[in-house]
Amino acid sequence: MGRWKSALALTAVVLGYAGVVAADDASMSKDLGATIALQGMPCDKVVAAQRNGDSDYNATCKDGNRYHVFVDGTGRVVVKKL
Amino acid sequence: MPPTRRNSGNAPTGAAGAAAPGAKGATQPPTNNTPPVAQQPGAPPAPTLDLNSLKERLKDTRAIGVFTKLSLKNQVDDLLSQLRAFHAKKTTTSLPELRQRYDLLLLKVLSLLQDGDPPLATAISQSRDSIWGILSDPQQFAKL
């Protein structure tokens, strides 16, 4: 019974963590989508984002467009179509 | 944990967040022969602009992500550079063209804020003309 309870607790923790990560992913995708739109490039919705480094992402849009979004040395946000 | 939007820190602060009765109504046709509120002699004045407060609230709002904020800042800085060149008479860009760019930028800001931080969107919308008044006036612009 003790083991069962531990497994249940562990599952809850893992699921809770996954929820936090999913929420972060969702807000990051929304942020990237708004950034791409602000640069006047087409992207209906960001469905995947891969982090390359600090302030450096590859975003994939639902319509198939892919973009490299990053902050350059002068502090400007750059969006490049991949 | 589901994504949450906390706007408690985005409550209107200072005069910039004050409501301007009739601000929207002034653009709508009058009904029941009532003149627009803005034309009434006893109407309250337009909200006093507090640029610093608006700037802080834009920085603090959780309705816009970091990348988006930085993108907007880049575009605001670009517009300020164009206005600086205009006031220094170092550009062929006309004031109406700059106003158009300003309106477009404000539209972008408002569309980003209207769902996540409606009070801030309202404050900015109500300050639109006041901000332009500062930007288009060489003396006031120089003090920014």
**What is the tally of beta strands of chain B?**
0
Helix share bin of chain B: 40-55%
Q: Count of helices of chain B?
A: 6
Rg of chain A, nearest Å = 17 Å
Largest sheet of chain A: 4 strands, antiparallel
Spatial order of strands in the largest sheet of chain A: 1-2-3-4
Q: Regions of chain A with pLDDT < 50 over 5+ consecutive residues?
A: 17-21
In quaternary terms, these chains amount to: heterodimer
The sequence of SSEs of chain A as H and E is: HEEEE
Structural summary, described in words:
The complex is a heterodimer of chains A (82) and B (144). Helix content of chain A is 45%, strand content 30%. Chain A has 82 residues and is α+β, with helices and mostly antiparallel strands. Chain A has one domain (2-81). A 4-stranded antiparallel beta sheet of chain A has the order 1-2-3-4, with helices on one face. In chain A, strand 3 (66-71) and strand 4 form a beta hairpin. The model of chain A is unreliable at 17-21 (pLDDT under 50). Chain B has 144 residues and is mostly helical. In chain B, helix 2 (66-87) runs antiparallel to helix 3 and helix 3 (95-113) runs antiparallel to helix 4. The longest helix of chain B has 22 residues, at 66-87. The N and C termini of chain B lie far apart (42 Å). Residues 1-39 of chain B have low confidence and may be disordered.
Structure in a nutshell:
The complex is a heterodimer of chains A (82) and B (144). Helices cover 45% and strands 30% of the residues of chain A.
What labels would you give this structure?
heterodimer; A: 82 residues; alpha+beta; 30% strand; elongated; B: 144 residues; mainly alpha; 6 helices; 51% helix; globular; disordered N terminus
SSE topology:
The complex is a heterodimer of chains A (82) and B (144).
Chain A (H helix, E strand, L loop, with lengths): L1 H37 L7 E8 L2 E6 L4 E6 L5 E5 L1
Antiparallel strand pairs in A: 1-2, 2-3, 3-4
Chain B lengths: L50 H10 L5 H22 L7 H19 L4 H9 L1 H9 L1 H5 L2
Helix pairs in contact in B: 2-3, 3-4
